Amino acid sequence: MAAGMPEVDDPAVVLYRWMLVHGGLRAPDLPRAAGETGLTEEECRLAVRLLTDTCLVRVDGNGWQAVSPQAAGARLLSGPEAALRAHEEELQARRDELQRRRDAFTGLIPVYLQARQHAFPQGTIDHLPDQFAVRELLTEVIDGCRSEVLVSKHGGSFPEAALREALPRDLALLERGVRMRSLYQHATRFDPATRAHSERLIEAGAEIRTLPEVLPQMIVVDGELGFLPSRSGGALLIREPDLLGYLLDVFQRDWEYATPFATGPQAAHDISETVKQSILALLAKGLKDDSIARRLGISLRTCRRHVSELLLGLGAHSRFQAGVIAERQGLTETRGPSPEQEAAALVPGTGAGTEAAPEPEPACGPEPVVAGADGPSRCPGCGVGLPATGGRRPAPGRPARHCSAACRARAYRARRKPGAGGGGPAAGA
């Protein structure tokens, strides 16, 4: 019971029941009540005092009358309840005042960003301090989106509350004719809430693909504004053109290697096999189960089940032996580069970046060129012959292959320009 309030004990309950049955208790009947309840007279006096303090009995002439528990509770607790309500109202008023001030500061963020953009037209990187500011600005930016939104999300499932909040906004975006491309991890296909959300968006015209691994969450709007998570909380707002170009290159490379989102038994089987191949590749690198599960966005239990099945299928007795066998059999060759390889390939001087130097040809001569129906296959950006792919053809609807990320980025930006024609060496002929 609340502090300062007496608590009804067992003798008081016994005497209270006796008083209800006998219509009350008169002072001369106290010895009789004690005898019939099995209490001593002193215990009866203490019980009467306790029942009076808790408002369960009231004095009635030369005796006492029992009162209903509802009436006793209303009389005894009305004062503390009124004080508590007043205190709650005061706390709510203080919360409302704090929220009003927070909203006032948040409302100044667009003013701050517009001024920064005017002062630094070459681009800026700003920090949004918390999720409130991120959600408000993201809603404003999405409402003003003109052409395309790119989304990359890490994780095997997303909170249902976040999906419910995002669905109306995304559907409204698609209804305006804005293109939306999203990259998820393969594991999202097995999460019911995320799968249902994705199917709704695809029906409305969104494009969703999956990979074993994707870079951390990223949103790019119209190729001019990017959102990246901040380790200190909130998000980074990117307007710097070179960094945005890097993010677009990374997204486009992932997009070309990703698999279109589909459901059904065959699709689930294919994705499950791809996930197992990714697990094999990470096993060969010596990663532990928890690290593999975290990178692939799956639960630790699912990861361990896959590992057990792989060990059994390979006839291996240990994780290390499974990695060695898989490496020898070529089972660890994943389709496309890992996120670390992507990042390294796009850093100037380390790979195919925006200004990467041409790679030296091998000593045995230039790489073979794939012969197509109309002759050798060449990069649509610069005309350089593309390396052999073993006779494989790009899947229908997949963007044309390019010789480097620089050509791919130029082609991507050219496609986004209104009224842009086809790229490549023949475009200007």
The coarse silhouette is: elongated
Number of strands: 13
Note the quaternary state here: single chain
The helix count comes to: 15
The end-to-end distance, rounded to whole angstroms, is: 90 Å
**Low-confidence sequence ranges:** 337-376, 389-399, 419-429
Helix-and-strand structural type = alpha+beta
The arrangement of helices and strands along the chain is HEHHEEHHEHEHEHEEEEHEHHHHHEEH
Question: In percent, how helical is the residue content?
Answer: 40-55%
Mean pLDDT across all residues, rounded?
75
* Sheet with the most strands, sense and barrel status: 8 strands, mixed
Task: Describe what you observe in this structure.
The protein has 429 residues and is α+β, with helices and mostly antiparallel strands. Helix 2 packs across helix 3 and helix 12 (300-314) crosses helix 13 (319-328). It is elongated, with a radius of gyration of 36 Å. The protein has an eight-stranded mixed beta sheet, with helices on both faces. Strands 1-3-2 form a three-stranded antiparallel beta sheet. Strands 12-13 form a two-stranded antiparallel ribbon. It has helices at residues 10-22, 30-37, 41-53, 69-107, 109-119, 131-143, 160-175, 192-203, 241-257, 265-284, 289-296, 300-314, 319-328, 339-346, 405-416; strands at residues 25-26, 57-60, 63-66, 125-128, 148-152, 179-185, 207-211, 218-221, 225-229, 235-238, 259-260, 371-372, 375-376.
